[in-house]
Structure formats: C-alpha cells, structure tokens
Amino acid sequence: MCSKTVILANGEKPIHHVPLSILREAERIICCDGAIAFLEQEKKNPHIIIGDCDSISFEHRKKFKSIILKDENENYNDLQKALKYCIANGWNEVVILGASGLREDHFLANIGILMNYSDKLFLKMVTNYGIFTTLQKTTTFESFAGQQISVFSFSPETEITYHGLKYQVFKQKFKSLWEGSLNEALSDSFTIEITSRGKILVFGAYKI
Predict the structure, then answer these.
(1) What is the pTM of this model?
(2) Which DSSP category does 185 fall into?
(3) CATH code at position 62
(4) What are the CB-based long-range contacts (under 8 Å, 24+) for 108-113?
(5) Using CA atoms, how far apart are residues 119 and 177, in angstroms rounded to an integer?
(6) Burial, 102: exposed, middle or buried (Cβ in 10 Å; 0-12, 13-18, 19+)?
(7) Are residues 82 and 150 in the same domain?
(8) Pairing state of beta strands 200-205 and 130-135?
(9) Are 199 and 119 in contact (CB under 8 A)?
(10) Which residues pair with 45 in a beta bridge?
(11) Three-state SS for 160?
C-alpha cells in the first residue's frame, strides 16, 4: 500500500514492514513535531513539520527552521493541525503513522480525531499491528482467510451488513462500539455494506 501523503505522529514508531514501507515510499511526509527524530533516522525528509514545538530538539529546530509551521493553538493537538493542513492543500487521501502506542489515552483521542475528519478526508491509520480504515459507504476489502477483523460504528442509526465474515450481520445497528468487534475474514475479500451514510471504522490485523 502506497500513499502520496503520510502524517507521521510522535507515538509508537513504525517497526512493522507495512508502515515502514508506506513511510519510505511516501511522496510527502507531514511530520508532527518531535517525530522528526525518527524520520531523520529513516533518512527521509519532511515536507513540513507541524506542531507547538514542545517536543522537538533545538538542533532540529535550527536544521529545519524553513519548514517548521509552529502552531501553539491549544484547542488542537499536532495530529489535528496536520490534518487541517492536508485539507487546506487538497490532499484528500492520507495515511497516518505513529499515532498509537505509548499512551492509551492519546491513542483513544487520536481515534476520535480520525473519525471527526473522516467526512473530509479518506483516512487510514496504520500501526504495527494492523490497519484502521474509515468508510462512509459500502466498501470491499482485500483480506486473507482467518484475518482478524473488527468493525466500529460511530453512527448508531446506520444499518450494517457483513459479507464474507465468519460472524454474519444483516442490517444491524450498532449502538455500542464493541458490538461489531472480534470477527474473522473467510477468504481473500469481505464487504461492509451500509444502507445510509455513516461513520464506520474497520480494523484488519496483519497476518502473523
């Protein structure tokens, strides 16, 4: 999976080959503040560095002075600032790396942010364990038999139907986030069908 636009957040650093390959093949990388330290280790140059500069070293501030966009607005975290930058520049398909791990509260907040922007951007959050994909319409996913799948509905009024998952669901409305979790793909693809526009998050784990 290749993406032109990647946001590198300052959470758990990519070590799995999937997020690492996405990072290395990206055409443009928006770096959240202190994540520049890891990006430099990967010998990749950022398109821009965004944040309040509270976790970036003096050396990096000096080296990348010309591409640092300092934003001290405390109403938004660095990931939100990066997403707003993507919207302003018309970059509509974005992969987010480094947004999980280290602190569970940060990760949960980042999931909330992911869904808040899912009606403005096509977003994926790729971790060291799998891929979160936002969707608002019926979508078919590539998979493999036995792949662990979870579906989270942030729109309790939306009817959801599964095709190709072990535990079938037909026009069901999920009122709690856990209701669509812990499923399994049966073959090389599955479909999440929704009958009305909604905010749905699908997680697919990597093959072990």
Answers:
(1) 0.92
(2) B
(3) 3.40.50.10240
(4) 109/77, 110/9, 110/11, 110/79, 111/201, 113/77, 113/79, 113/80, 113/83
(5) 19
(6) exposed
(7) no
(8) antiparallel
(9) yes
(10) none
(11) strand
Question: For residue 150, what are its two tokens?
Answer: 């979870």
Do 152 and 200 touch, CB atoms closer than 8 A?
Answer: yes
Q: Which residue type occupies 172?
A: Q
Q: How far is the C-alpha of 148 from the C-alpha of 202, rounded, in Å?
A: 11
For 129-178, the pLDDT digits (tens) are 999 999 989 999 999 999 999 999 999 999 999 999 999 999 999 999 99
Tokens 């501030």, residue located: 61
Q: Residue 156 belongs to a domain with what CATH number?
A: 2.60.120.320
Q: Token pair for residue 122?
A: 């096509």
Per-residue pLDDT tens digits for 46-100: 999 998 777 787 888 888 888 888 877 778 888 999 999 999 999 999 999 999 9
C-alpha to C-alpha distance for 173 and 157, rounded to whole angstroms: 6
